[in-house]
């Protein structure tokens, strides 16, 4: 596939492919949060997704899009977090081997999630170079297929299925808020949402300590953060050329929020919605709570990306 | 109304009355918890109910069952917890005054919940005698109607609506697990469930440090705990003659669980279901997790009663 090869059609095909292998997640509304925001908020709850995050969508689409011949040697990825568990789960459903390269300093919970889905863990030094080198070596040695966490049109199309469901449940959305890290979710959702509803406004929200997407979006040139620092660990990744292109084409603006506001937002969501969302998930709502957006009276979709938290390490 | 005046018909009428004024809550399933239990578990999520607990059902039914003449002077209750907020909310919907007697040592969150719904708070010493005396005085002085937290057929019928919804969503339940404190929920749900599905087995679960229901159920005589001690603060109340009678008629057994097992269960539910439930809500699942019940292969309903927790005071 070519870089821009993510379309409404590939996203619809992804939806067919992952149906029955992932969940259709609910949309929650809350009167208190609506009153605070002066808007109608619709929370798409990917914290209830299989594997605990939306990553199950992209990983499942990628694994099941491969032919029997292509996948016979299994799949490889590198991940310190949720993508690894999602790939292990999808490979388990398909009955093939999953080799997950993980930094040796990953949390016990992350290792256990991969083991729990039957994945093989390969530990490496905690650098991107070490992860990429080991993954490339495994591909070369075993013939397995590499599944990138976000720089892959099949993964992006899988994440885009969120928008199909949300716009079915709430057809009249005026605005959709997306978290952005590596850009897989943001670009997939943006392609689908703008195709289905050209008038919708799309705003991506990013932690200020990992604001490569905002800078790259503004300049038009990939500008990765050298040392991203944010509590939103799912959003530390940097855009790829592919995701930057899709985001520049379809997303209207990118705003940033501080870690303090992310923690406040996470706590508000727990308290009011009675659901568990991880810090990365709270990033879009943080922009609402801090009143960074002009949303008065609007119907606003907010994607809550996942619920994998360490209950012994809460940030308050 | 007379003590036993809770029937499938009054529960159906309650459902009509509270429709649009409370939520129909979802039922969650989880593959991991099913595998651990060796059974099919169906969690009825009253943590998503308005006011944060199932108490909204009984309070709303009681408030809206009163005639305009009966309710013109408003309502009174005493509560250290969720019932007070639920009555304040229901009175606000009806546009009448709510006077909520609360022990002066209640948590700030409990006071704020009542204020948030427009209720008036009257503080008293933290004894049942003080609460009852002040509530009686308010009734005498203002002509307001007293709404007991559970010893009231309208409140019991309101709580029973949970069973109507759950058995619509999962008609083939073999077993239903209920938490029991004062017995409002347990007796209302038991009346409805046994009327709709006589073959269903009903087991109430109680904290061992507040086991008056188990002792009263066994002996047939009200045996309140003198000093209930349990983390499940919603279940410290003692059965009334009315709730004991209904529970002895319709519930098959009562088992007890320790506080340590309640905390373990609460944590498991947070981790796996990605939802916030309070300690009292985890009591029925604790009996499953501790393998106190013979449920192999069964379809088991579990009522999760509420989600009002202090996020700064988690029990782990």
Fold and architecture overview:
The structure is a homodimer of 316-residue chains. Chain A is an alpha/beta fold and 316 residues long. Chain A has two domains: 3-51 and 156-304, Rossmann fold, CATH 3.40.50; 56-146, Rossmann fold. Helix content of chain A is 44%, strand content 15%. Chain A is built from 13 helices and ten strands. The first copy, chain A, has helices at 8-18, 31-37, 55-65, 68-71, 82-94, 108-116, 128-142, 153-169, 184-196, 212-219, 241-250, 259-273, 283-289; strands at residues 27-28, 40-45, 75-78, 98-103, 120-124, 145-146, 175-179, 201-207, 253-257, 299-304. The A-B interface holds A 26, 28, 47-48, 52, 267, 270-271, 274-277, 307, 311-312, 314, 316 and B 26, 28, 47-48, 52, 267, 270-271, 274-277, 307, 311-312, 314, 316.
What's the layout of helices and strands?
The structure is a homodimer of 316-residue chains.
Chain A: H1 8-18, E1 27-28, H2 31-37, E2 40-45, H3 55-65, H4 68-71, E3 75-78, H5 82-94, E4 98-103, H6 108-116, E5 120-124, H7 128-142, E6 145-146, H8 153-169, E7 175-179, H9 184-196, E8 201-207, H10 212-219, H11 241-250, E9 253-257, H12 259-273, H13 283-289, E10 299-304
Shape of chain A: globular
Poorly predicted sequence stretches spanning 5 or more consecutive residues of chain A: none
What order do the helices and strands of chain A follow? Answer: HEHEHHEHEHEHEHEHEHHEHHE
Biggest interface, which chains? A-B, 17 and 17 residues
Sheet-strand content of chain A, in percent, reads: 15-25%
Return the structural class of chain A: alpha/beta
What is the percent of helical residues of chain A?
Answer: 40-55%
């Amino acid at each position: 596939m070519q870089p821009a090869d993510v379309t409404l059609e590939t996203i619809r095909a992804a939806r067919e492919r992952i149906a029955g292998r992932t969940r259709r997640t609910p949309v929650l509304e809350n009167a208190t949060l609506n009153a605070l925001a002066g808007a109608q908020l619709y929370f798409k709850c990917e914290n209830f997704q299989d594997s605990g995050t939306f990553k199950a969508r992209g990983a499942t689409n990628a694994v099941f899009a491969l032919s029997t011949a292509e996948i016979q040697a299994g799949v490889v990825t590198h991940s310190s977090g949720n993508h690894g568990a999602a790939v292990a789960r999808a490979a388990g459903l398909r009955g093939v081997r999953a080799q997950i390269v993980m930094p040796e300093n990953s949390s016990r919970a992350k290792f256990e999630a991969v083991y729990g889905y039957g994945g093989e863990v390969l530990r490496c030094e905690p650098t991107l170079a070490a992860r990429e080198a080991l993954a490339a070596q495994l591909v070369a040695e075993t013939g397995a297929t590499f599944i990138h966490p976000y720089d892959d049109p099949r993964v992006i199309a899988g994440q885009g299925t969120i928008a199909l469901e949300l716009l079915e449940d709430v057809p009249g959305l005026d605005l959709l808020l997306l978290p952005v890290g590596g850009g897989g979710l943001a670009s997939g959702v943006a392609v689908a949402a703008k195709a289905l509803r050209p008038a919708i406004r799309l705003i991506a929200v990013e932690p200020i300590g990992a604001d490569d997407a905002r800078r790259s979006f503004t300049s038009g040139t990939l500008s990765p953060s050298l040392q991203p620092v944010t509590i939103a660990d799912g959003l530390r990744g940097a855009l790829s050329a592919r995701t930057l292109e899709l985001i520049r084409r379809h997303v209207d603006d990118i705003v940033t929020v501080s870690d303090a506001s992310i923690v406040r937002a996470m706590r508000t969501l727990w308290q009011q919605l009675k659901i568990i969302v991880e810090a990365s998930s709270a990033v879009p709502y943080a922009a609402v709570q801090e009143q960074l957006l002009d949303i008065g009276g609007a119907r606003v979709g907010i994607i809550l990306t996942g619920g994998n938290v360490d209950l012994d390490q809460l940030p308050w």
